[in-house]
Amino acid sequence: MFPKLFSYGSFTLPTYGILVALGFVAGLVVTVRLAQQAGLEKETIFNLGIYLALGGMIGAKAFLIFQERNYYWQNPGQIFSMATLQSGGIFHGGLLVALAVALWYTRHLRLPFLKTSDAFAPGIALGHSIGRLGCFSAGCCWGKPTDLPWGVTFTNPYSNETVGVPLGTPLHPTQLYESAAELAIFVFLYSRFRKKQFDGQVFGWYLLLYPAARFLIEFLREHSEEAFVWQNILSDAQAVSAVLMAIAVWLLWFSTYRHRLLAPAPISHEQPSNPRPRRAAKLSSR
Fold it and tell me: Is 98 left (phi over 0), alpha (psi -120 to 50) or beta?
């Protein structure tokens, strides 16, 4: 749609990069605010956000190279090309690496992992929602051809050269589908943060809702053959999403059970319905 925000000579400022950076900043601001409400240290959470961003970028690039392994095996020099470096990579790859970084960091500093994850979940959803607008501007992560009236036709040759999106064909705007889904998830998680019953509930909802949305949207996305793990039907993103949903269901069930088990029994202040009458004291007139 609009891959270049600014261009002067050989210098190009991609719209994708600006929107991804904006999403990161917005997500981190929300995360720090929620972390403070939860009693977590602001500086510690801010530093963790930086580490998660770096780990997420490395994981996203690594999964991209693995997904397109046949191409990169034949063209190893393209691993460090501008097209690869400018691409966002595979989000679920970045998410898995970011989770590993979070586990290490919280364990190292003795932070409560689930409480910390609850603070990060809404911000991740918001940042990803904004980042998907960057995907739409660049043309990457495009959908299958469609005859629906909201199909989007890419016409910029630069998008075709950098990310390979086909030109002149109406496509499902899967980037916008996912952006809208993530925005709705953000609103839900943010509204539930103060109402959560136990640590890990908000994070568990994120692990359930986003993979579910991604699993469905994947049916409308265009993929190379390397992206499928089963008969050109189930993509690797859907396989990872299924695993994450299973983990989310277990986390929510276990945490709910543990919360009810450890919750103190309610104290009843009601009087018995049929109290036993007291015997009147006998008076002696000795």
Answer: alpha
pLDDT of residue 276: 58
With a CB cutoff of 8 Å and minimum separation 6, the contacts of 69 are: 226
pTM, two decimal places: 0.84
Region 267-285: mean pLDDT is 54
User: Which residue in 213, 187, 189, 201 sits closest to 248, CA to CA?
Assistant: 201
SS3 at position 221: strand
DSSP letters for 137-206? HHT-S-B-B--STT-EE---HHHHHHH-PPSSSEE--HHHHHHHHHHHHHHHHHHHHTT-SSTTHHHHHH
Closest CA to 93 of 240, 234, 248: 240
Hunting for tokens 């190279």 — which residue is that? Answer: 65
Residue with tokens 């990579």: 89
